[in-house]
Structures are given as C-alpha cells and as structure tokens.
UniProtKB/TrEMBL annotation:
It comes from the Bacteria. It comes from SAR324 cluster bacterium. Pfam families: AAA_19, RecD_N. This is RecBCD enzyme subunit RecD N-terminal domain-containing protein. Keywords: ATP-binding, Nucleotide-binding.
Amino acid sequence: MSLDLDFFRNREFQPLDHHFAKKMVQLAFPEGDQSSDEMQMALYLASGLVCFEAAKGNVCLHLQDYAAEEMKVTGSDGEENSLLFPALESWIEHLQQSRIVGDPETRHPLILEVDTEVKRLYLNRYYQYEQGLASFIRQRLKPVNLDEQRLQKGLDRLFPSSDSTGIDYQRLAAERALSRKFSVISGGPGTGKTTAVLKILSLLIEQADDEVPRIRLAAPTGKAAARLKESIQKGKQRLLGKGQISQEIYELLQEETSTIHPCWVP
C-alpha cells in the first residue's frame, strides 16, 4: 500500500483507531486494487473517526462534523500536524463505492445513512443496537388501557389545582406516563422529578388492583443510587404526611435502589 495512512497515530487518538482504520482499508482495497488514493483515504478517515466516536460513547459518526474541516493534531514527536477532511459530497461518494460500506438494508461492516439531514456512518453492530432500541421504544409507545375515572381521581388528589392559570406540567407528565409503557421525564435539579415519579408510581399501583406492579429503581452509579434512595424515602414520607397517598400505597412504594447494570438481566 503506497498511501501513507498514519493520521490516527497522532496523540489525540487511540491505537485501536489507527489499526481499525487501516484494517478496513486492507479489506476494501486488497493488494493490486487500482482504486484512487482519494478513495482509500476517504475510507481510512471515516473508519478511524467512527471508531474514535464510538470510544467517546457516540453510536455513529456525523460526517458533517468533520467534512471540509481542518483538524490539528500532535504527532508522537510533539510536532503539530494538520489534515483537511474531504468535502461532504465527495466523501460520501467515495464511501458509497467501497465494498465494505453499505446502506441500512445491508450487512456490510460499515453502514452509511444518507437519506437523513445528518449523514451518519455506523459500525454495523452499533447500527443494529440503535435500531433494536428504537423498535423497543416504539412498541412501548402504544396506548395502554386505563381506568380513566380512577386515574382522574388520583390525579386530582396528587396534583391539586392551584390559582395559577398555567399548565401543571407535573400532572401532564404523570397522565402521559400512565398512558404509555415508556416515558422520559427531564428537568434540572430541584424541578420535582423525584416527586413526580413517586406520584406516577402511586397511580400505577392504584391502577393495578390486586396485582402489584414490579418496580425497579436504578441510577447510573452507586452514589447516585444512594441519593435516589434518600430522595424516595423523604418524598414518600412527605406525600403520606399530606394525605396524598394511603398507608398501603406508602408501604408498596419501592425504596431499594441499585445501579442500572443489574436491571439488564431479565
């Protein structure tokens, strides 16, 4: 291979980025292949960057983030180097001509998605992970059957109306959370996320009749799990003190927390 493929040897990258990128080029352009240097370099750069982005926790490479941009890096000798990435259209064109890059309907090592505003390159496995997660979420977005009268009664008790004419977003979040099997509630510190979750769990228990729902409380780290447990304990005590939940619901509200990892086991 006459082309000098050493960009990912620079200090900003890991050895895996370089070796993976070089291996992809070797697979796509075996010895004797007459493809242009530009095509080989396009694949080398895209392969190294998709590996680099995966190590940062990103499921794919957004080609626009690098296309036609100059990146300055530091070589092993301490000298500063720079490289100008290909323009987006030519980069995509070169990748589409590679035998190891395919569209989302194929099983190539690299998956190129160009039918979206953001042009994405995936490792095949990560593309499958993303599609599986998206399918999982879509299935749980379907409406569920509820006892509407019981739900409204519970909402009125847990979210009493105030003089404010604005929208009660906590009540709205609770109502929507119960109508689907998947919900995301976000907000900064002190915005009432834990209280809202406790009220949602209370409503879920009320909807369940004799079959108590299985509740798992999880956080990213052990420290966060301990803080969550403390917040849950204080929150349910506060709801009981206000008469918003019964003693029975209080006792059924789960206090034990864990990190997320054990929850992955069925």
